[in-house]
Design brief:
mainly beta, 4-stranded antiparallel β-sheet
Amino acid sequence: MFTGYSGPKGFSSGAFRAYNRTQEMNHGDLFYTIDNDPYLFYDLDNLSLIKPSGNVVFHINDKEARNNSGSFKAILEVYSEANKHY
């Protein structure tokens, strides 16, 4: 309730950046990592560019995410070169 609500793109106003895990994205932004390289942060605009193998792990750009409430729903479709399902 302190910050209000945001969508998966976080707070575009630049608010609360001191609490960010990464400064390259908005506070509260939904982003992901690949479990075999958890230090590279990807924004949702690049979700279709995943090439490496591994699990996609979603995060909120907030150092103190445990004090938040709410959720996002993500639907992922997996395409591979083998089945050419584009």
